[in-house]
Amino acid sequence: MLNINFVPDDYIQNSESHRTNLMYLVLFSVVMAALGGLFITIKVRQRALNSKEKLVNAKMTQAQEAIKQFEELQAKRKVMMKTALTTTELLEPVPRSVLLASLTNDLPGGVSLLRLNLVQKELKKTSHAALTNKYMKVQAEKAAAAVARVSPEKLLETHIDIEGIAPSDRHVASYIGRLGSSNLLENVALAESKEHKTKDMTLRQFKLTAMLRKDVHLTKEDIDSIRAGFEEREL
C-alpha cells in the first residue's frame, strides 16, 4: 500500500527548526540559571569568608594587644624584681641563710640553736638636751649632718636574738667568744642562762643578743666558704 505524505517539506523543516531553537533556548536558560546560581553561591561564600576574615583580624588585633600588654607587664615585673633585689641587698647586706649558716658553723660541740630572731631598727638619734658641752654639740651636729646625707637604708640596725641549749656554761661562753670574733657580728652579750632539766641530764638554756655589723661586706668567696662549712657540718 502506498503512503502519501501531504505535509509540505518546508513546514516540516520549519517545525524541526522551531523545536531545535526551543531546545537551545531551554538549554541556554538552564545554563544561565546554573551560572546565576553559581554566581550567587560564590558571592554568599565570599561574604562569609570576608566576615570570617574580619573576625580573624579582630582576634589577631586583640591577641597582639594582649601580647603587647603581657610584654609590658613582664618588663615592669623585671624592673620591680630588680628594684626589690636591690632594696633587699640594701636592707639585708647579709642574706639570712648565710647568717644562719655562720651562726651554726660557730657552734661548739654539743650546743644547738633553738630560735633565731632578726629585727631591724632605725638608729637612735642623740638628744641635744643630754649634751652639756659646746664642743659635743658641734660634733653631734656634724654627725647629724653626715647621717642626713646617708641613704635611709644605711640608718638601720639589725638586732639579733639567739636562743639555744648547751651542756654547760663553759660551752655557752665558748660560743659567745666565737661569735664575738666573727666578722659579721658585734656587741655579742649573754641575756639569760638557766637550767633546763631533761630525763637524763641537766642542760643550760641560754639567750644571746648581738648586732649585725653595719660595715659588713661579704664576697662571693666568703659566702661560698660559709655555706660549704655549713654543709660539711650537716653531713
Structural description of this entry:
The chain is 57% helix and 20% strand. Mean pLDDT is 78; it is low at 126-131. By secondary structure, the chain is α+β, with helices and mostly antiparallel strands.
**Structural shape:** rod-shaped
- Please name the CATH topology of the largest domain: Alpha-Beta Plaits
Alpha-carbon distance between the termini?
A: 133 Å
The residue fraction in helices comes out at: 55-70%
Number of domains: 2
Task: Give average pLDDT, whole number.
Answer: 78
- Output the CATH homologous superfamily of the largest domain: Ribosomal protein S6/Translation elongation factor EF1B
- Identify low-pLDDT runs: 126-131
Q: Structural class of the secondary elements?
A: alpha+beta
Helix segment tally: 5
Rg computed from alpha carbons, rounded to a whole number of angstroms: 48 Å
Describe this structure in a few short sentences:
By secondary structure, this protein is of the alpha+beta class. It is about 55% helix and about 20% strand. The termini are far apart.
Descriptive labels:
single chain; 235 residues; alpha+beta; Alpha-Beta Plaits; 2 domains; four-stranded antiparallel beta sheet; 5 helices; 4 strands; 57% helix
Topology:
Blueprint: H1 9-91, H2 96-105, E1 112-122, H3 134-148, E2 156-166, H4 169-180, E3 185-197, E4 202-212, H5 220-234
Antiparallel strand pairs: 1-2, 2-4, 3-4
Helix pairs in contact: 2-5
